[in-house]
Every structure is written in C-alpha cells, then in structure tokens.
Design goal:
The protein is α/β, with parallel strands linked by helices. Helix content is 33%, strand content 26%. It contains 6 helices and 9 strands.
Length: 207
C-alpha cells in the first residue's frame, strides 16, 4: 500500500477548505495528522473533531511574541508527524520561526490571481480596482505577504460582480479543487523549483 503524505492544516475560520481536503485527499493521497488554529472558537476545529483528527488551538498568550506562538504551533504539528503544512484559511502571517521547521513545505490558498491583490481583503481590493476576471492561487509560503512562488492558479470571469460575497461564492469551488490538487502534486513528488528561475514551480507530468 502506498504511503500517504502526512499533512498538517492551519485554520482560522469556518473550515470549508479543510472540509474539501477531508472529503478529497484525506485517507487517500494524504493523511491529515493535525489541525491547528489561532482561534479556539474556530468552527474548523469542530470539523476536525467530527472526523477524529487531532486538533489544538494556539491563541497568543499575554505578552507573548507571535514568533514564540509560531514555534509552539510548529512543534506541536511536527510532533504529529506532518511533512506538509497547508494554510486553509489561516488568517495570520507565519514568520521565519515557523517556516524553518518546514522548508519549501508550506502552501497557502489565496483568493486572487497573484501577484495581484495580496494580503487581507483581496476580493475587496479586486472589486475596488474594477477587475472583471477573478481567481484563486495556491502558492508556496515564504516570509513575505503572499509572495511565495505560485503552484496553481485558476480564473473565472465575473464581469458584473460588485459584492464580495458573490465573488467569494464563485471562488469557493476553485479553492476546493486547487488546494487538494496541490496536495496531490506534493504527495507524489511532482513539484520542484526551476533551476533557471527559483520563482517558478515546475510540475512533473504523470507517467
């Protein structure tokens, strides 16, 4: 039996992307070995509990530096055996203290066609700019704000969009497809950096 890739998932909110991972790759190409959140009340943690996945909350302690909290999360999720970290709606920046634990093994899903509209409020930024094509990116995480190399992207034309919730509704299916696909690619060792351009992620063809 082929070994499943152990992954850890970081969440902050409802957990729809976590659910997409549970419904698609969990127990197949990958095994979600731990779910961590910065918010003890995050509904995503209930999704993990319902599936029997180990989960924990890591709110900032009084006077605690975020880098110290990042170290606590990294240590816990490493103890679960995770080899890939998936940010599935995790609304906190991860500093170098965390990324050093998982070099080139942290991915994020972002609701824009990066490098356009990084950071918080990406959909609102896009609407304010007046774009007619929206999209989703899955990228490697570095110590910038949504600046890591892009793995996958998909776009959708929404020429009449004017409300963020309508755009989000259209982008959700793209997120729920691309994030598991990126995990599958990582699990089979299909992702690598282009030696000629480290900004570019190469995807090996399936044989």
């Amino acid at each position: 039996m082929k070994r499943r890739l152990p992954i850890g998932v970081l969440v902050s909110g409802q957990g729809t992307n976590l659910q997409a991972l549970i419904d698609s790759v969990h127990g197949v190409e990958a095994e979600i070995v731990g779910v961590a959140s910065n918010r003890p009340s995050a509904p995503a943690l209930a999704r993990a509990e319902a599936t029997g996945i180990p989960h924990a909350a890591f709110p900032l302690g009084d006077g605690e530096d975020r880098g110290v909290r990042d170290q606590r999360i990294a240590a816990w999720i490493s103890d679960q055996g995770a080899q890939l970290i998936v940010l599935a709606g995790y609304m906190q920046l991860l500093g170098p203290e965390f990324l050093r634990w998982f070099p080139d093994a942290v991915i994020n899903v972002h609701p824009s066609l990066l490098p356009a509209f990084p950071g918080l409020g990406a959909i609102e930024q896009a609407l304010a700019y007046g774009v007619r094509v929206f999209g989703v990116s899955v990228h490697l995480v570095d110590d910038g704000v949504d600046t890591g190399p892009v793995i996958l992207q998909r776009a959708v034309e929404l020429p009449r969009a004017h409300r963020p919730e309508h755009v989000l509704e259209a982008l959700r299916p793209l997120e729920h497809a691309l994030l598991p696909e990126a995990v599958r690619l990582f699990a089979r060792g299909a992702l690598s950096r282009d030696p000629a351009n480290p900004r570019r992620v190469l995807i090996a063809e399936v044989r």
